[in-house]
Amino acid sequence: MSETTESMDHRPLGELLCPEPDERPDLWPWSTRRREDGVLEIGGVALTQLARDFATPAFILDRADLRGRARVWASVMAEEFWEGYGMAGGDAFYAGKAFLSSDVVRTVTKEGMGIDTASLGELTLALRAGADPSRIGLHGNNKLDSEIESALSAGNGVGIGRIFIDSVGEVAQIERIAARLATKAKVMIRVKTGIHAGGNAYISTGHEDQKFGVGAYDGQLDEVVAAIEASPHLKLCGLHSHVGSQIFGTAAFTQAARILCALAAHIMTDFGRPLPEIDLGGGLGVAYSGDDPVPTSVLEVARAIAAAVKSSCEELGIPFPRVSVEPGRSTIAPAMVSCYRVGAVKDATLGEDAGEALRGHRRYIAVDGGMSDNIRPALYGARYTATLANRVSSAPLLRSRVVGKHCESGDVIVWDVDLPADTSSGDLLVVPVTGAYGYSMASNYNMLTKPGVLGVENGEAEWIMRPQSIDDLLALDPGVHHRGEL
Ligand SMILES: *Cc1c(COP(=O)(O)O)cnc(C)c1O
């Protein structure tokens, strides 16, 4: 180890360092700070204390941060599309798939957001956590009858605020269930706008070879509108488009807004039906490491969408629609971190072509979680960063890879980060920006138990999702002798 350390002394440092909270506040929950003793603190609680009193690995949620982000989305949409400014109102629906728990539902709805769901589980949780059914949406490219039934029966039969129709065939399915329940379903149509956006790239294509939505220009949209118009138990409320995820800048959103306005104008002309609402989906990006740019602000996005909707509607001569968005990642990703305990540390000797920064070695730092609590690096090659949470170190930096404890060599949490050479077993590593698509995509691979989620605020911590136990895992297996039965 010392040999490697010394050989690293001359390489330029700081290329892949995890930015400290004061250097890149956008990467960290708002209350994160490095104490004078080097310990990282969130919500007024030291991560060392959380690791000792609760568990590692754990997700840690800064509750005030989530509240603030939800409030910003809700209030900025309300403000930019305010009726007082001549618009028709604006809304933000939290995309529950990013991470949903009853606490999160209550937090974001209290701040004024609605909830978007995409399965019976998400819908049931939102309802049981007390979300107003009229402020819940249901998505899905293959909705089950049970999901539609639950959506239409919510609120004593009033039904949820909107169901997003994703295919021609779904019109008859929802009509059949709404007729049986003697209710009227409020529906919006998800269209393929031809825009694809994601990552830092922004690509516009003429067609979309993907499973979501109905074609806007191949006759499918007209077919769906005609079918809805002929269905006595369906009420068409508007059009929806979700162009992608991890989007920086405003161009993808404003282009989608203009396309939806143009399609709404077309439907008004051909079917004589004005559409009161458009929804532009989610997708606003966040930074995951120091390499990523600071994300576009919520205000900038909303303001750009408002300007695009205003000018489009004026040109097209249609009334302003109510405008909604569905931000998931940007609402919760930076409000949470993952905290792990370091276990095995080893160096791999690499070939000559390993590159300058590696100097023939790659350090592998294994932690007590892995791809079961964060699949994104393995699934998408997503790039995170990590830093020591229990101390600072002046040891030389080593290009390191943070890996989990699963039986898979692709079990990587952080592909590349410069960590102090003295990082060793027992240290705490924290990975920021894990609030979205971390816990919600977690699995029990290798029969690892899912970590819990700790809510922290004002020096207090409590589980908002308890960690799974081995008994939780075994409870579903009828062949297991349960404790005491042996
Ligand atoms: C995934 C998704 C979202 C949320 O996307 P984020 O990138 O997390 O903001 C919103 N709407 C729909 C329809 C989605 O599929």
The CATH homologous superfamily of the largest domain: Alanine racemase
Overall outline:
globular
Tell me about the biggest sheet?
Answer: 9 strands, mixed
CATH-scheme architecture of the largest domain: Alpha-Beta Barrel
* Small molecules bound: pyridoxal-5'-phosphate
Total beta strands: 24
Distance between the termini: 47 Å
Fold-level CATH name of the largest domain: TIM Barrel
Number of structural units classed as domains: 2
Helix count, per DSSP? 13
Layout of helices and strands:
Blueprint: H1 2-7, E1 33-34, E2 40-42, E3 45-46, H2 47-53, E4 58-62, H3 63-80, E5 90-95, H4 102-110, E6 114-117, H5 120-128, E7 136-138, H6 145-157, E8 162-165, H7 168-180, E9 185-192, E10 195-198, E11 201-204, E12 214-215, H8 220-229, E13 234-240, E14 244-245, H9 251-271, E15 277-279, H10 298-316, E16 322-325, H11 329-332, E17 336-349, E18 361-367, H12 376-380, E19 387-388, E20 397-403, E21 412-420, E22 428-432, E23 452-457, E24 460-465, H13 470-474
Parallel strand pairs: 4-23, 5-6, 5-16, 6-7, 7-8, 8-9, 9-12, 9-13, 10-14, 13-15, 15-16, 18-20
Antiparallel strand pairs: 1-2, 2-3, 4-17, 10-11, 17-18, 17-22, 19-22, 20-21, 23-24
This protein binds pyridoxal-5'-phosphate.
The site of pyridoxal-5'-phosphate (PLP) has 17 residues, from helix 11.
Looking at this protein, list some descriptive labels.
single chain, 486 residues, alpha/beta, Lyase, Ornithine Decarboxylase, Chain A, domain 1, TIM Barrel, 9-stranded mixed beta sheet, globular, disordered N terminus, binds pyridoxal-5'-phosphate
